[in-house]
Amino acid sequence: MNSALMLRRFICVNASATLSSAAPSPKKKPLIFLGSPQVSVTVLEALFDASSAPNSSFEVAGIVTQPPARRDRGRKVLPSPVAQYALEKGLPSDLIFSPEKAGDEAFLSILRDLQPELCVTAAYGNILPTNFLNIPLHGTVNIHPSLLPLYRGAAPVQRALQDGVRETGVSLAFTVRKLDAGAVIASRSFQVDDQIKAPELLSLLFSEGSKLLIQELPSIFDGSAKSKAVPQDDSKATLAPKIAPDEAWLSFDQEAFVLHNKAGREHELKS
Predict the structure, then answer these.
(1) What is the pLDDT along the chain (271 residues), one digit of tens a residue?
(2) Residue 150 to residue 156: CA distance in whole angstroms
(3) Which of 20, 22, 78, 122 pairs with 241 at a CA distance of 20 to 30 A?
(4) H or E segment at 260?
(5) Could you give the CA distance from residue 194 to residue 183 in angstroms, rounded to a whole number?
(6) How far apart are CA 208 and CA 202, in angstroms?
(7) Among 192, 197, 42, which Cα is nearest to 123's?
(8) Left, alpha or beta for 139 (phi > 0: left; psi -120 to 50: alpha)?
(9) Do residues 116 and 220 lie in contact, with contact meaning Cβ atoms separated by under 8 Å?
(10) How far apart are CA 194 and CA 179, in angstroms?
C-alpha cells in the first residue's frame, strides 16, 4: 500500500482500532503537531529531537497534515512534506492524519481519544474550529512568521517584504477562533536584509520559531505561559492575505523600490 493511501486510513478505521497501536506512553505528555509544507518540517524535527532527550516530558503522539495532493513536475499524488518526513522518521502511519477539514467528526473522535495535552501548529493550512480547540488540555499554540499583531494571515512574510519592512520576526501565540489573534507567549525580532527573498526569510523565521517553541514548552505544559502571555492590541493589527495570481505580474510603470520589494516577495514572478 503506498504512503498516500496509508495517510488516509483514519477515515475508515474505527477509533478503538487506531488507539490500540496509538496509545501514548503514560509517562510523557502527548503532543499533536499540525503542519504541511517543507518549512513545517523544521518545527517537527525540533520536536522529535526534544522529545527524544532523556529528560523530555512529552512525546509526539500524532501528526495532522494536509491530504496527499498532486505535486512536483510529475504531478504524482504525494503526501505532504510533513507526512513524508514523519514516515521516514518511523512514525506509524495510523498516527498521521489528513482530514479534509479539521472539524471532521471522525477525526475529532480519534483526536479526543488520543487525549493530547497540547497541539502545535506551523503552517498547517486549515482552519481550526472551536470543537478542535477545546480538546487539548493546555490549548493550541501556533508559530507565526511575523511580529503579531502585524501581518495576521496567510502571507505574512510576502506582505512584509512587499511593504519593504526593515524589521520582522516570529511569534509563538495561543490559537483562538479569530485569525492569528491569540495572546503572544513569546516573540523574536530580526532585521531584514534588503536582498533576502521570501523562501529564505520564511525558512529562517520557522527555524527560529522552532527554537522559541522548545524554549517555551515547559511553561506551556505547567500552565504558566497562559498567565504571562500578552494579549494582542487589535487596533494595531494588520492583515496579510494570500497573494493573488494577478499580483505576481511586474509592471515596469511602477517605481523601482516597488519592483524590488515584489521581486523579494515572490520565489518566481511573471514578467
Answers:
(1) 444 334 444 333 333 344 444 555 457 999 999 999 999 999 999 999 999 999 999 999 999 999 999 876 767 899 999 999 999 999 999 999 999 999 999 999 999 999 999 999 999 999 999 999 999 999 999 999 999 999 999 999 999 999 999 999 999 999 999 999 999 999 999 999 988 999 999 999 999 999 999 999 999 999 999 999 999 999 999 999 998 887 654 444 434 344 344 444 444 323 2
(2) 8
(3) 78
(4) helix 256-265
(5) 30
(6) 10
(7) 42
(8) left
(9) no
(10) 29
Q: Are 61 and 23 in contact (CB under 8 A)?
A: no
Tell me the residue type at 257: F
Q: In what helix (H) or strand (E) does residue 167 lie, and over which residues does it extend?
A: strand 167-174
Separation between Cα atoms, residue 135 and residue 113, nearest integer Å: 10
Residues 95 and 86: their CA atoms lie apart, in Å, by 9
For residues 170 and 192, the answer to whether their CB atoms sit within 8 Å is: no
Cell 497540547: give the residue: 118
Torsion of Cα atoms, 128 then 131 then 132 then 138, to 10°: 120
Whats the size of the chain, residue-wise?
A: 271
Instruction: Verify cis geometry, omega within 30 degrees of 0, for the bond prior to 156.
Output: no
pTM to 2 decimals?
0.84
Instruction: Give CA–CA dist 100/60, Å, rounded.
Output: 22
Distance between CA atoms of residues 63 and 48, nearest Å: 11
